[in-house]
Every structure is written in structure tokens, then in C-alpha cells.
Amino acid sequence: MRFILAWTLIVLCSFCLADGDVGHHRVFPLSPVIERGSTLELFCSLGKKLYPYKNASHIIWTLNGNRIAKENYIIVNDSVSGVVIHNFTYEEAHVKCYVDFPVEKQHLAHTEIKSGFPPSRPENIYCINYEGKNITCSWTFEHDTYIETDYTIIGKQGRDWRKTFLNNTWKTKNGSRSCNFQTDVFYPSFCIQLKVENPLGKAESQCVPQISEEILKLGPIPVKVEKIPGMKKMLRVSWERQMKEIKCWIRYRNMKQNDSKEAFNFTEIYQQNYCDLTNLWSFTEYAVAIQCIKDGSRFWSEWSREQIGTTEEEGKENTAVMF
User: Fold this and answer.
1) 250 — alpha (psi -120 to 50), left (phi > 0) or beta?
2) Per-residue pLDDT band at 102 (split at 50, 70, 90)
3) Are 173 and 188 in contact (CB under 8 A)?
4) Which of 33, 78, 124, 268 could staple 199 via S-S, CB 3.0–4.6 A?
């Protein structure tokens, strides 16, 4: 509302001072950005070439090609007409002013209006450090802005967060809820702050602390599934990754069964590079995957791609048991 009143006063003063002395047709304000659902006022000037042959009462207005009802018109003076558009909810719209002639209307000027919302304060900021190299930070908003908005992510570290190691800004109108950046330097702890600004307002979060050990997420770990020579109804699952201070779950299932959750078997291992699956069915294919987490972290890795292994032929079919 204050925006509308301010523009109205500016327009009225400027047009009153320049009554009949405007050289060109124009719409004012030009290309406004307003809050969605608010009331918009626009003004159109005839200019010297048409005034005094025509006056403001001959000006007509259209919104996206549709004529606006005359009860919404405002006559500022002999050469300036205004229009009031209530509850503007278009994301983008075009408003044009014409002068009415007997044969056809003559286009005077036009403007594009965009509507959206001021940014809300970013909340629930958290980060994930993938493999210690790529960090993705995410957050939530109460609502999107629907107009072009500047997003700035700031990373700070050191005592009292005095040193800035990250300051990136980007624009988008579709809403941004994450940002990825790379780092070659390990910071035991740091904080992340987000600032958001558009023509309707600005907001910012606090600098939210992140503990690197807690946000580390390992990548999927490739596994091999092999028979154990001379051992029946067994498979060996192995992987090459250094497993110091790392806990893993192995997931396996009989391929003769479906892939529902009930068909999976699980076992937990710690600081090992292999695991033997025992008491399996003979001459049967098993699908095996692994998921791991570093001590102190909150995030498990994604499950690795399933690998297939087949037990040797011979022996009775038993329910899969893990030692």
C-alpha cells in the first residue's frame, strides 16, 4: 500500500508540473514489480502531438488484450489518464494504453508488470560433504518469490567465524533450495549463511554451524561377489576401500525371490574389507549391495549397485542365515 501511495504522489506531482508539456506518449511507472494480490496504479500521457486534439478522457486501457472497464480509470489532468487494477495475481502481464479514434484506436505506450512476493527467511539449513570434496547445502522457505531473486551463500570459518571462504551469488525466479560448491581445504567446522533479496524485500538467515565429521557422506562402494573355492553354499563379498573407522551394512537377496523389502537379508560389519555369506541356497543367484557410514557422521552412503553371485551346485536349500 505504501508503494502505491508513493508512486501515486510522484506521478501526480510530476504530471501536474508537466501538464500538457510531455513530448512523447509514455506509461508510468515502467515495468513495475509488485507484490502479488496488491493494487496497481498506472498512468499514461498523451504527449504534445495529440494534446490538445485529444484529451485524457479519450485514453483507453487493456490488460493482456482485454479492455479494462472505465470505472477503473482516473483522470489526472487533460493529458494524463490513470488506471487502477485491484488484486493483481498475474505472474506477468502486459498493460497498454490507446487513444480512441473513430476508425481505429492508436497505440500510445505499454508496460510489462511482474508480481511475486518478498523473500522469506531461509530456514533448516544443513550441508552434506560428499567424499570430502563436494559440499551441498540445502534449506527451506515458507514460500517461493516467483520473481527474479538474488541468492547469496556465505561460508565462514575460524575463530568466531571471522574468515570468509565462500561468497557466491546467483539469480533465479523459480526458487532455489540448494547450492553445491567444491573445496580442496578441510575445515573441521564452518558455518553457512544465506541472504536473499529481490525488488520487494530481503531476508537472511543466521550463520548455521556445520561440523565436517558429522556431515561427511561416503560415495557408493563397489563390491565383488565370488564363490569360495571348496566351500559350498557360501559367497564372499569384498571391496577395495580403506575401511578404517567405517561401519557398513551388507544387503543380499535370493534372486529366485522378489525384490520386496521382505526378501532382503542384512548384516552389519565394521572395519573389514570382506564378508562371507553362509548357509545360502545351492546353485542360486544372490544380489548383493553395501551401504557404509564413517564414525561420527549422520549420513549413510547410498546403496552400491547390486552385484550378482552364484553359489556352487550341491547341498540342500536352507533359509539364508548370516554368521
Assistant:
1) beta
2) confident
3) no
4) 33
Q: What's the burial of 232, exposed, middle or buried (CB within 10 Å: 0-12/13-18/19+)?
A: middle
- Dist CA 36 CA 181 (whole Å): 33
Quote the cell numbers at residue 51: 494534446
Query: pTM of this prediction?
Result: 0.77
The upper half-sphere exposure of residue 38, i.e. CA atoms within 13 Å in the direction of its Cβ, equals 19
In this prediction, residue 28 carries a pLDDT of 87
Q: For residue 262, what is its C-alpha cell?
A: 521382505
Cβ(139)–Cβ(205) below 8 Å:
yes
CA–centroid distance for 291 within its chain: 28
Q: Other CB atoms closer than 10 Å to residue 256's CB: what's the count?
A: 11
User: In the predicted model, is pLDDT for residue 316 greater than 50?
Assistant: no
Between vectors from CA 15 to CA 14 and to CA 19, what angle results, nearest 5°?
A: 130
Cα separation of 251 and 97, whole Å?
Answer: 69
Residues 36/89, Cβ–Cβ less than 8 Å: yes
Looking at residue 258, its pLDDT comes to 65
Query: Residue 7: what pLDDT?
Result: 44
| Residue 270 neighbours by CB under 8 Å, 6+ apart | 246, 247, 248
Residue 74's CB is within 10 A of a number of other CB atoms, namely 16
Q: What is the pLDDT of residues 58-67, one digit of tens each?
A: 899 999 999 9
* Residue type at position 147: I
Three-state helix/strand/coil letters over 172-207 = ECCCCCEEEEECCCCCCEEEEEEEEEECCEEEECCC
d(CA 148, CA 114): 10
Given pLDDT bands bounded at 50, 70 and 90, which one contains residue 218? very high
pLDDT tens digits, one per residue of 71-87: 999 999 888 999 999 99
Phi, psi of 63 (to 5 degrees): -120, 115
Write down the mean pLDDT value for the chain: 85
